User: Fold this.
Amino acid sequence: MPPHAGRGIRNPGKVCTPVYLSTIRRPKPDTGTGEAGRRRWEAVGTNVFALGTVSLVTDISSEMVTAILPLYLIIGLQLSPAAYGVVDGAYTGATVLLRLVGGYLADRVRRRKAVAGFGYGLSAVAKLGLLAAGGSVGAIGLAITADRAGKGLRTAPRDALITLSTPPAQLGRAFGVHRTMDSVGAFLGPLVALAVLAVAGQRYDAVFVTSFCVAAFGVVILVLFVRDRRGPVPPAGAVSPRQAAGLLRIAGVRRILLAAGLLGLATIGDGFVYLLLRDREDLATVWFPLMAVGTSLAYLLLAAPLGALADRIGRLPVTLGGYGALVLVYLAILGPVGGWPLIVAVLALYGIFYAATDGVLMALAAPLMPERLRTTGLALVQTGQAVTYVGSSVLFGAAWQFWGPTAACALAALAGVIAIIATAALLYGVNRPAGAVEATS
Assistant:
């Protein structure tokens, strides 16, 4: 988020910030070419690239497990779609409260790198928990919860470090670069998992051990190469639960939070999309992990260009376009086209969805948050989306279980259309106000 976002704060008793939603709708023209364009890309900074490297390595580790987990649970442990929906919801739901805890703690102590590092370390150790769990669904659930808890702790501090290391006008590019590097890891993870399974004779425990080693290497990179952006320790009372709650008094924050929640409700887990494709096309099990590779390939090719496009034409249109691609994913699965054209189209659209929404949503929210509560504000938006995602996964799994995959996809597409329209209504036409919007505590 832009360094100037918190300058409207007049005293520790109030949260006050200019609501620069005009940066969402009407950014300055930017051709991205020539010497000026090179300067803009250079402005992204080495810290963003260091954080991107950490995310790249960590995502190799995470996607090694994610790529095989749906098959392990559905085929290996014979979970029903409804039960898988609960597990998938818990996979993200475990991050809900800890996103807020991590964000608030990072703002409170001004040690965002340390909080993020603890989260990365917890996720690494959780891979060993999967190894120790064996075939116990309960123990696997605990290990997954620990892994996602680590993600919850690290996400907001990491994104805050990106915003603090980047000029305000280049936030879309910075998040695009970071998400591109992140998606390279997501691209490689399933391939590494397949290679490990091939060498180890289809032993899942070998994947878990390798995943732990890779994740530990990511923590080392964070410690050695990422620079913290501490700033002065805030005065007593400047960062408190009361002040954090005061964020909700800012109209722009309320709107983006509601919009994020609606968009989360329209999103189902990756595993569901890939299982739907597998069942419809009767694909061999060996192809399942490669679906994530296809999505990640589209993601890594488009994340940086779409981030730059968001800086040029506005972050809201790009975000809404991404959710439009998600609706097309649901409709394509329902449509008459089958075979490889369907698989390629779905994976490409799914990658476009992630590239247009993941980092861009954070860049869209950035101008709304005061600097001293920046990490907390980002965590609040992420938490709102995570809460509704949990409900979406559970409801989608139940709909598939009791009404079938066709009805479940139709409902997901309808929810996506409603979320896009509602988000456009919430955020469209909000211009730069004459003065700062003040939230009293």
